[in-house]
Structure formats: structure tokens, C-alpha cells
Specification:
17% strand; elongated
Length: 723
């Protein structure tokens, strides 16, 4: 029998895990830093590959050791070929240098494709983590002491308990936590992300060192362009205890949980300011980031490694996607490839489900991030950066999918590729792309919305005063019906003083008239006294009219509608001392300033939506088109209407409250900004009887425009971006 001239690599590091029937072997490739899980049977064959033992002898020894199992020659050949592809064995036949060179080229090509397929997370070359941990671990090993761990547990549980006890107040404050998403908060958010992720990764590295495993590498990763720390702790796979491996994978999230607890306490106790904002950003990064990224096993983050450790499958992500790729290629193109003999057949359905879920979630995540980039960069005139990122991702992902088929097509002797079926699939794909590109599809135009009263008249505060009473919102009134009463200490004081002076002068006039019978010389003083009395009575009448002005009446028949909500005292650009609406019970007794819009009175259920359409979209909007309006304050509710008219020219004098409410750019906008500083105005009549509409509400509108193919639409959008 001829010896099989392949042998196990002498530098492989093999560790056993489990006992008896559950025992397996972990093979570490120290060069590629990859790990492979082998069953006893597979490990037995690997050990027999010494370059001298014939193939038939290996087969017979296997069947003698693992009776009643039988091993066919074809199965053995396939398994050995798989080991060679994975780099676990080397051949002693001539020409291996060229094979190894091609394998290295393929590995570098795959790494490059991985970077292009996911440019949002680029891992830069790092350094060995050993020297850094040799310095840090002796100084920080106290964090693993029982006392510190108990303190952290008490902190986290106490914070969770406080949040549950004050959940209503907590949720209300969270709803107002919008300052962390404004453009001015981007830089602090990036700083918080860098610091949190650095502590997160150090948690992994220090825990790995605690269990006497090596941190292979520490370096920098560009996560959506932000430099963050990463630590390679895959050496933990050599640990025989899987719960230790799970703790290493969970350490980063546990660090973030403690940070989130501390940040929650600071955020709850601190007044508005930079400290409060940084605490709220830390809460957001440590909570949303953990749930959406780290804990999710569909991404190659902590949740994935926990699942991989729990299942004891070192290369779960690669194995699952490789299996799915083989099945898809075989189904579509008839392309046969070598199966992975190390994967149990019973795992195939679960691995396929995991691969599909992982791909779908990755696509959703990438799409969301790209949409966010477009939303952030487009107002700054930097949408081209998002376009480049999207193009790189599409090309990278597409090349990884298509290249195996192209390589198989260029091998005429390869019978496994069914060229007829492949041609049909390619033709169907081109036809499908053509349908998407040239077949008209529904099109919508988006616009900003501000609600105003239709044919309504405003009731404004004529004098500063204290709100004493007001009718409920929605009250049907007649013209001159009383809507609200105000009181003014100044008016009352001036009125009382004028009344006193008038009464005093009236008494003087009366006395002068009585003295005329006894002293005719007083007649000369009487006309002046009467004139003074008339002046004082007129002054009293003026202050009585001012007091009457504090009684606010309906200017017409209709329904009383509340004004736009005051979100903060600064919304009125002065200290009003109240927020919300004057109709709110807690605002009874508040001070209203001159010119404050108290309410509007107009026909019942008559509202008008002011649509702000940018000049680029104007060509697609026309009177009579249907409009669906989403109100920010009424999530899930839709207002329906049609465009009545569109202004023929730009309106560059929008009311100040509209500019503030819709956060429109003004003269200070960046010169290269893609957002217009002028808009075309369209009005849409709405029926307000089905929705609790309020003047000043904001939202977004979707105008049903004429159908248009996708290709011209994308071309126009790209042309506008790159102009």
C-alpha cells in the first residue's frame, strides 16, 4: 500500500474539551489564528496523517476503533481534502509552494473583499495584547474581587429598582431627551462612544487574562468612521470550561451595564447642562448599542460569541454562511463544492436559519446606517460621502456573491456548473433589474407640514395679565361670548387710584356748589373744578375700558381652538413662566404677556395644512393630488387631504413660529448645503373632526405624485448630489 503523503501540521495546538461522549478537540491555527472543532473520530484521522500511513490502513484503523461505524474511501478523501483546504494538514508532494501561494492570495483577496463589503467597520492591524495587559492587569485585578463585584451588582439592581419605582417620571424625562441628537451633540456623542467602547474592550481583555487565556491582538477599528478599540480574545476557545468563555464574551456588556447605571444616576440627579447631556449619551450608547449590536447574535459581536461558546462551535458565522452559499449555488447554478465534514448533519437546518437571519439583519442594519448617514450628511452638502459608502458596500457584497460563479464559468472542464441554468438565472436577474429600473412605480413627494387654522380668527392678549378663568377648548361660542378673564394688579391699582381721585374731585365740586349761596366769590373756581372732574372721570373711564379689555371675547361664531403648545419658556423668547397651553389646568393663574395668542375661534373642524415643498420636488407636485399627513404629536394617525393651491414663487418671509417649529435653515445655513432656504407653499384643507388637531402642530406629508421608473429618479437624485 502506498503511503498517503500528507501530514498534520506540527505547529497546530490541540486542546480537549468535555468528557466521554461530549468530548471534542479544539485545533488552533497559530498562523491564521483560526479555531476548528473536531469530534473524536475526526481528531483520530487527523493524528494518523503522518505522511507514512497508507489511506487504506487509516480507514481500517478507524473502523476497528469506532465500531460499528464504516468509513468509505470517498468520504475519507473528502475529509482529507477539507482539512487541506482549511490549512490543518500539508502535503509533501512537489508544487505545494504554488498551492500555498494561491491560498495566501485567496485569503488576502477575501480580506480585501470583506473590507469593501463592510466599510462601516474596518479593523486596522493591531499589536500583541500581552505587553499592555502585563502592565494593566496587576493594577486592575481588584475589579475581580468579590467585594467589588457585589458592589457592582448592588449598583445595577438598585438602579433598575429605582427606575421601576419612578417609571412614569423616568419615561417622561426620556421622552424629552432629544438634545443628544442635535448636530451640536455629535462630537460629544463620538467622544462618549470612543470611551465606552474602549472600556468595553478592556473588559474582554482583562477577563480573558483573568482566566489565563491570551489576548491575541489589540488595535483600532474604524466604526462608521469613528476610531474605537478592539481586542482579539479568540484564544479563549482553548479554555476547557465553556462558562469561562461565555464570561469573557459577556464582560464588555457587563462593563457597559455598570456604566449605564452610573450614567443613569448622574442624569437623574444633575440639572440640564453638559454633564447631564454626557450622562444621557452614555445611557443611550450603553443601552441601545448593547441591545441592537452587542447582544444580538446575528452580528459578529458579543451575543454571537456567547452563542458560539454555548453551542461550542468556534467558527459558527463562517460555517453557517459557507453552508448557505453551497446550498444556494447548488440550487441555482448546479455548482457542487466540497462539504465541510466537521459539521454534524443534524445542525444543517439551524445553521441555514442562522445564516439567513444573519444576512437579513446585516442588510437591515447597513441600510439603516446608510440612511442615517444620508440624513446627517445631506444637509451639510456631503451626501456624496454616503453615496460612495453605499457604492462600495454594494460592489463588495456583490463581488463576494458573484465571483465564485464567474470562476466556475471560466473553467470549461468543470461539469458541476450547469451553464444553461446559470444563463437562465442571469437573464431572469437582468429582466428583474430592468423591471425595477424602467417600469413606472408609485412615487411620493415629501414635504414639511405646519398646521394652521382654516378661516379662524385669533384671540390675542391685549394687556399683560394673570389668567383667572378660561372656557374649555372645543367650546362652541357666539360672537362676543366671554372666553377668558384676566386680572392685572397694575390695572386694578390705576383704576382704584383714578376712582379715588374722581370721587374726591366730585366731592369738591359738590361742596363748591353748596358754598355759592353763602360765598358768591367761589363761583370763579367752579369751572376749573368741573373741568378737573371731567378729566378725572375720563381717566377713570379709560382704566375701566382697560379692565374690560382683560375680559377676552369671541370675535366671531365658532369653536374655541387652543394655540400651539409652548414647549419651553424660551419658545416665546421671554420668560413666560409656563409651558404647554393656557387651557391646561396647571396654567390657570399664569402670567400672559401682551400679544400672546390665547386661542383661535373659527368654524368647527376647519384646519389647513401648510406644506413646504422644496424647489427640486416642485415639478412633481400639483393641485388636486392626494396628501397623507403624519402629525408628530399623533403617532400612528393619518390626516387626509388634497392640495388646493401652490404658490407661484418662493416665500422667503415665513412666520417666525413656522421657522422655529420646523427647524428650517435660514441665512446662516452653510453655503454648500443641499437644503433649500426657500420653499414653495402649498395648502391642504383638512377635516379635524376625526383627529384632535391643534394649531401649530408639525409633521410630514407624502404627496401622491405621478408614477415614475426608479432609474430616472435615481439619476436625478445622483445628479443633484454631484452637481
Amino acid at each position: 500500500m502506498t503511503a498517503l503523503r500528507v501530514r498534520m501540521r506540527p505547529d497546530l495546538q490541540l486542546e480537549t474539551q468535555g468528557e466521554a461522549a461530549d468530548r471534542c478537540w479544539i485545533a488552533k491555527d497559530p498562523v491564521a489564528l483560526r479555531y476548528f472543532r473536531l469530534r473524536d473520530e475526526e481528531y483520530f484521522i487527523l493524528r494518523l496523517l503522518d505522511g507514512t500511513t497508507p489511506l487504506e490502513e487509516i480507514r481500517l484503523k478507524f473502523e476497528a476503533t469506532f465500531q460499528p461505524l464504516r468509513l468509505g474511501v470517498q468520504q475519507l478523501h473528502g475529509f482529507i481534502l477539507r482539512l487541506h483546504e482549511q490549512g490543518l494538514i500539508v502535503s509533501e508532494t512537489p508544487g505545494q509552494g504554488e498551492i500555498l501561494h494561491r491560498r495566501a492570495q485567496r485569503t488576502r483577496r477575501q480580506q480585501t473583499q470583506a473590507i469593501f463589503a463592510n466599510p462601516l467597520a474596518i479593523r486596522l492591524p493591531g499589536i500583541g495584547g500581552g505587553p499592555l495587559l502585563d502592565v494593566l492587569y496587576p493594577r486592575l485585578k481588584w475589579i475581580f474581587s468579590p467585594l467589588f463585584l457585589i458592589a457592582c451588582a448592588v449598583l445595577v439592581l438598585g438602579t433598575i429598582g429605582c427606575v421601576l419605582l419612578e417609571f412614569d417620571s423616568f419615561s417622561q424625562r426620556l421622552a424629552r431627551m432629544q438634545s443628544i441628537f442635535v448636530p451640536q451633540a455629535v462630537v460629544p456623542m463620538l467622544v462618549v462612544m470612543v470611551v465606552v467602547k474602549a472600556l468595553h474592550e478592556l473588559g474582554h481583555a482583562l477577563t480573558c487574562r483573568r482566566f489565563k487565556a491570551r489576548c491575541q491582538e489589540i488595535g483600532v477599528m474604524l466604526l462608521i468612521g469613528t476610531p474605537t478599540l478592539y481586542c482579539d480574545v479568540t484564544d479563549a476557545w482553548r479554555l476547557p470550561n465553556k462558562w469561562q468563555r461565555i464570561l469573557i464574551s459577556s464582560a464588555g456588556m457587563l462593563v457597559e451595564l455598570v456604566l449605564a447605571s452610573i450614567a443613569t444616576i448622574i442624569w437623574w440627579q444633575s440639572p440640564p447642562g453638559i454633564v447631564n447631556m454626557l450622562a444621557s449619551q452614555t445611557m443611550f450608547v450603553c443601552s441601545v448599542g448593547t441591545l441592537a449590536f452587542n447582544l444580538n447574535p446575528l452580528l459578529r459581536c458579543d451575543g454571537y460569541y456567547i452563542l458560539s461558546d454555548w453551542l461550542e462551535v468556534p467558527n459558527l458565522w463562517q460555517d453557517a454562511r459557507g453552508l448557505l452559499q453551497r446550498r444556494v449555488y447548488r440550487l441555482l447554478f448546479g455548482l457542487e463544492s466540497q462539504e465541510d465534514a466537521t459539521l454534524p448533519a443534524a445542525w444543517e437546518p439551524w445553521l441555514l436559519a442562522y445564516a439567513i437571519g444573519s444576512i437579513l439583519y446585516s442588510l437591515l442594519l447597513v441600510s439603516t446606517i446608510l440612511a442615517f448617514l444620508f440624513r446627517v450628511l445631506e444637509p451639510q452638502g456631503l451626501a456624496s460621502i454616503a453615496w460612495i459608502a453605499a457604492a462600495v458596500i454594494v460592489v463588495g457584497m456583490g463581488s463576494r456573491t458573484v465571483m465564485p460563479v464567474i470562476r466556475a464559468w471560466n473553467q470549461p472542464g468543470r461539469k458541476s456548473l450547469r451553464r444553461g441554468r446559470t444563463s437562465l438565472i442571469v437573464a431572469a436577474a437582468i429582466a428583474l433589474i430592468g423591471c425595477f429600473a424602467f417600469v413606472p412605480v408609485p412615487k411620493t413627494v415629501r414635504a414639511k407640514v405646519w398646521l394652521e387654522a382654516g378661516e379662524a380668527r385669533g384671540v390675542f392678549v391685549p394687556l399683560p395679565g394673570k389668567l383667572e378663568s378660561i372656557v374649555p377648548a372645543g367650546t362652541v361660542v357666539k360672537q362676543n361670548d366671554i372666553i377668558a378673564r384676566l386680572s392685572s394688579a397694575e390695572v386694578d391699582r390705576q383704576r382704584s387710584a383714578a376712582a379715588g381721585l374722581a370721587a374726591e374731585q366730585a366731592t369738591r365740586v359738590k361742596n363748591l356748589k353748596l358754598l355759592l349761596n353763602d360765598d358768591p366769590t367761589q363761583a370763579a373756581a367752579l369751572p376749573a373744578a368741573i373741568k378737573t372732574l371731567e378729566d378725572r372721570n375720563e381717566r377713570l373711564a379709560q382704566w375701566n375700558r382697560e379692565a374690560e379689555r382683560l375680559v377676552l371675547r369671541a370675535p366671531c361664531d365658532g369653536i374655541v381652538r387652543p394655540p400651539p403648545l409652548v414647549k419651553s419658556p424660551g419658545d416665546l423668547q421671554r420668560l413666560t413662566g409656563w409651558v404647554g397651553s393656557p387651557f391646561d389646568p396647571q396654567n390657570l393663574g399664569c402670567q400672559l404677556e401682551t400679544g400672546t395668542l390665547l386661542c383661535e375661534v373659527g368654524p368647527e373642524a376647519a384646519f389647513s395644512a401648510l406644506l413646504l415643498i422644496d424647489p427640486v420636488s416642485l415639478a412633481d407636485a400639483a393641485p388636486g393630488q392626494a396628501v397623507r399627513i403624519t402629525i408628530d404629536a399623533l403617532p400612528g394617525r393619518i390626516a387626509i387631504g388634497t392640495i388646493g393651491e401652490i404658490a407661484e414663487s418662493h416665500d422667503d418671509e415665513l412666520p417666525a413660529e413656522v421657522i422655529r417649529a420646523l427647524k428650517l435653515p435660514q441665512e446662516q445655513a452653510a453655503p454648500n448645503s443641499d437644503l433649500p432656504t426657500e420653499y414653495h407653499l402649498a395648502r391642504v384643507a383638512l377635516a379635524g373632526d376625526e383627529l384632535p388637531l391643534r394649531v401649530g402642530m408639525t409633521g410630514s406629508a407624502r404627496i401622491a405624485a405621478a408614477w415614475e421608473p426608479l432609474l430616472p429618479r435615481l439619476w436625478r437624485y445622483a445628479s443633484r448630489t454631484w452637481k
